[in-house]
Amino acid sequence: MKPVLLVVEDAIEYAEFARLFLSDVADLRTAQSGAEALAVLGRDHVDAVLMDLRFDRSPREALIGNVDDLAKELFGGDRERAARYMQDQQGALIVAEIRARGHKQPIVFVHDFPGRRLSNLRRLYGEVFAVPSFDAAAIRQILGLRPTAA
What we know:
Layout: E1 4-8, H1 13-21, E2 27-31, H2 34-43, E3 48-51, H3 67-74, H4 79-88, H5 90-100, E4 107-110, H6 115-125, E5 128-131, H7 136-143
Parallel strand pairs: 1-2, 1-3, 3-4, 4-5
Helix pairs in contact: 2-5, 3-4
C-alpha cells in the first residue's frame, strides 16, 4: 500500500501537481478548507500533508480563525486587515488546528519561508517543512515517499 498524502488548498493547483508528480508514490486525498482537512484526518489514515499557505480564494466563512478576535488582538480593531491576515496565513492557522487536535503527520508547505519563520513553525508545530517551489523530488525526499513494488 502507498502512503496517503492529504493535499490542503483553496483551489486545484496543488492537487493537480500531486496527481501528476506524486500519485505514483502516494494515494491522494484533498481538502479545500481547514474543516475539510480535519474531517479527512479524523476519518482516514493520512501519512503526510501538502499544505497551501494562502487561501485567498476561500470565502471568509470557510476560514479557520475568528476575524473579530484577530482584529482586536493584532490589528487595532481593523476587521479588513484581520480578514486578509486570515487568508494570507490560513495554512499556518490550519496547521495549528491540526496539531491542537492531536494529528502529528509531517506537513510540507510550498512556500519560501525565511529561516526564522520556518524555525518558529517547527518549534510550535513539530514536523513542518517547506520547499520554495513545486519540486516533486524535494517533497518526495522530505516525506520519504518512494515508489512501491508492484
